[in-house]
Amino acid sequence: MQPRLDARKFVDALVELGFTLGSGVPCSWLNSLTNEMLNRRDVRYVMAAQEGEAVAIAAGADLAGQRALVTLQGSGLTNAGSPLTSYNYPFRRGLLLFVSWRGEPGVPDEPQHELMGEITEAQLDLWRIPHQRLASELPDAISQLHGALRHLDAGRSFAFVVRRGMFTDVVLTARQSPISRERPSRRAALTALLAYRDQGTMLLATTGYTGRELFELGDSPNQLYMVGSMGCVSSLALGLALAQPQRRFIAIDGDGALLMRLGSLATNAWAAPPNLLHVVLDNGGHESTGGQATAAGVVDFPALAWAAGYPRSVGASDLAGFDEAVADWHRAPQLTFLHLETAMATGALGRPTVTPAEVAARLRNYLTVSEPVQAR
């Protein structure tokens, strides 16, 4: 059995080398490293909305003379590509990267990681970023860190590719502030939407637990479960709504996903299809990677949507208000933003047993062959 790096001792080594600021987007394969930094007082870890932002945050700290690191999922590497290639490379300022090797060839993983897993190391090569697979023995890993410093001092970024199960487990203790009131469950909100699915409305669920729970509640050909493509569900729904104005679409987003592609609010509002309802189920964290907090606690999402130009934006305070807002949109369609704070308290969830390709094929068939159901 492969030994595992002691996450606490590894972060001790990082701190000793001056890495007291980090930023990134959670990945379940890196959550021990991330959780350890979040739990500590001698490290400031900034949970970024997306990987390119994390690179820019760390780059700013570096420019101020502070050593900084970035943690990111391999599938998010392309989000980081713009600042890595157009800032760090030409400015000759290197960063230390920890990239989870999701989709590593020969290692079982989810389908959204397959392609990036095959090309993770090749992608780093194309961007001229030296890299190593992180060693599982602490003395070897610390030696690798010292080697990485030589690249950083020469103005080059350096990446550690992190395999599955590399770190010892770390429980996240630095969670967001306690919630002042009881919140409805995500399951209850999704259940309320199923009545509209049965009337022919398309339900499109964001990546993570939302899609998995929707599938668990009942699969249907007029449903789509995003895998990867975090933050893209409302944009996908926008394209669908514009292409088929005679049908109705509900995009079920999350707080972390929306923060990753916040500019989509303005695009959606500019296009303004009346047959699109944009729902955000906000649990304040990245639940599927361990519950790390997002920035949602300081964000007024309905006000953002209103300011972006949505003709209708609703902040539901409970499930009854949520149901009422969905019914209002269904009776008199106009582009609507609907926000509901939900609890983060889900047990183990299975994954869809239909493949992404099957989901896309059957939804396309549903949209191009069947007749729209008349609203009731």
Helix content: 40-55%
Tally the helices.
14
> By helix and strand content, what is the structural category?
alpha/beta
Task: Using the coordinates above, name the CATH class of the largest domain.
Answer: Alpha Beta
Name given to the CATH architecture of the largest domain = 3-Layer(aba) Sandwich
State the order of secondary-structure elements, H for helix, E for strand: HEHEHEHEHEHEHEHEHEHHEEEHEHEH
Q: What is the β-strand count?
A: 14
What number of domains? 2
CATH topology of the largest domain: Rossmann fold
Global geometry: elongated
Can you describe this structure in just a few lines?
With 376 residues, the chain is an alpha/beta fold. α7 runs parallel beside α13.
Task: Describe this entry's structure for a reader.
- With 376 residues, the chain is an alpha/beta fold.
- It folds into two domains: 7-162, Rossmann fold (3-Layer(aba) Sandwich); 186-369, Thiamin diphosphate (ThDP)-binding fold, Pyr/PP domains (Rossmann fold).
- Helix content is 42%, strand content 16%.
- It is built from 14 helices and 14 strands.
- A hairpin with a 5-residue loop joins strand 11 (285-286) and strand 12.
- The model has no long low-confidence stretch (mean pLDDT 93).
Question: What layout of secondary structure does this protein have?
Answer:
Layout: H1 7-16, E1 21-24, H2 31-39, E2 44-47, H3 51-63, E3 68-73, H4 77-91, E4 96-100, H5 114-126, E5 131-133, H6 138-153, E6 158-162, H7 186-197, E7 202-205, H8 209-217, E8 223-225, H9 233-243, E9 249-254, H10 255-260, H11 264-271, E10 276-282, E11 285-286, E12 292-293, H12 301-308, E13 312-316, H13 319-331, E14 336-341, H14 356-369
Parallel strand pairs: 1-2, 1-3, 3-4, 4-6, 5-6, 7-8, 7-9, 9-10, 10-14, 13-14
Antiparallel strand pairs: 11-12
